[in-house]
Amino acid sequence: MTTVFRRLTSRQTLLSRKALKKRTKESTVLIVAQRISTILNAEQIIVLDDGKIAGIGTHKELLRNCEVYKQIAASQLSEKELQDGMQSEDRKTRYKK
Questions:
Q1: Which residue among 19, 30, 49, 82 sits deepest, i.e. has the most Cβ atoms within 10 Å of its Cβ?
Q2: What is the pTM of this model?
Q3: Residues 6-39: pLDDT tens digits?
Q4: CA pair distance 15, 27, nearest whole angstrom
Q5: How far is CA 13 from CA 2, 4, 10, 16, 45, in A?
Q6: DSSP string, the chain
Q7: Mean pLDDT, to the nearest integer, of 48-53?
């Protein structure tokens, strides 16, 4: 699956992910990724560093608590994207209450 997504444009990737999400709604899906954008909205992210678990959590939780994830995110996302991710997660939490 990763090879398929690697060859797509950003728009095609987004459309493919939406279709995949719809089809796997009731399934457990495991995605192995190198790009943060691929797993940004995952319910749970497991960060590996040299084959060992460095952190487990959501994007927001890992940005706060996992140095390895912070470094990866900082290298792949703009400051605005990092801030937007934190704020959107805060909004989701507020609306769930």
A1: 82
A2: 0.66
A3: 556 667 767 777 887 788 888 888 888 888 888 8
A4: 19
A5: 11, 9, 5, 5, 20
A6: -HHHHHTS-HHHHHHHHHHHHHHTTTS------SSHHHHTT-S-EEEEETTEEEEEE-HHHHHHH-HHHHHHHHHHS-HHHHHHHHHHHHHHHHHH-
A7: 96
